[in-house]
């Protein structure tokens, strides 16, 4: 009888564990030619970004509600801009981090790129979101332009996209 109780207690404790098996992010990249702008919206599991910040910066930090809004904003901005590289027509560009918000158990990050050159054909994105922290992390990118749509799955070993905007 005692063994059954212990087994039941262990089984119940595992059923309440808050983990997920899949490590995934999604990013929508939208080309808006009339504004000469690329708009980025990325979604990450909140617990993954929080765990990364706890390991790298502060083991006591908490997201949603924020234990330190200023420190979390700085961390998310730095994390986002350091883990994505953009090339347009062979020229390196930097994203402008716009902000973040929480939606359920997700962290949503917004960024944009306003390139100077008028002739934009080929886009190359190299994204390494969380792949060094979570080796099985996968990052899905959905790219849209007025004439095209395409999705890409990026991993630790395959982290580059090439897409023609026109």
Q: Name the overall outline.
A: globular
User: What is the terminal separation in angstroms?
Assistant: 70 Å
Our estimate of the beta-strand percent is 35-45%
Mean pLDDT, rounded to whole units?
87
State the total count of DSSP E strands. 10
Low-confidence stretches: 4-18
| Portion of residues within helices | 10-25%
**Count of helical regions:** 3
The computed structural class is: alpha+beta
User: If strands are numbered along the chain, what order do they take across the biggest sheet?
Assistant: 5-6-2-1-8-9
| Main sheet summary | 6 strands, mixed
Order of helices and strands: HEEHHEEEEEEEE
Integer-rounded radius of gyration: 19 Å
Number of structurally distinct domains: 1
Keywords:
166 residues, alpha+beta, 6-stranded mixed sheet, 4-stranded antiparallel sheet, 3 helices, 10 strands, 40% strand
Secondary-structure blueprint of this entry?
Blueprint: H1 2-15, E1 24-32, E2 37-45, H2 46-56, H3 69-82, E3 84-88, E4 91-93, E5 96-103, E6 106-113, E7 122-127, E8 138-144, E9 149-154, E10 160-164
Parallel strand pairs: 1-8
Antiparallel strand pairs: 1-2, 2-6, 3-4, 3-7, 5-6, 7-10, 8-9
Describe this structure as you would to a colleague.
Helix content is 23%, strand content 40%. The protein is of the alpha+beta class and 166 residues long. The chain has one domain (19-164). The strands form 2 sheets. A 6-stranded mixed sheet has the order 5-6-2-1-8-9. The protein has a 4-stranded antiparallel sheet with strand order 4-3-7-10.
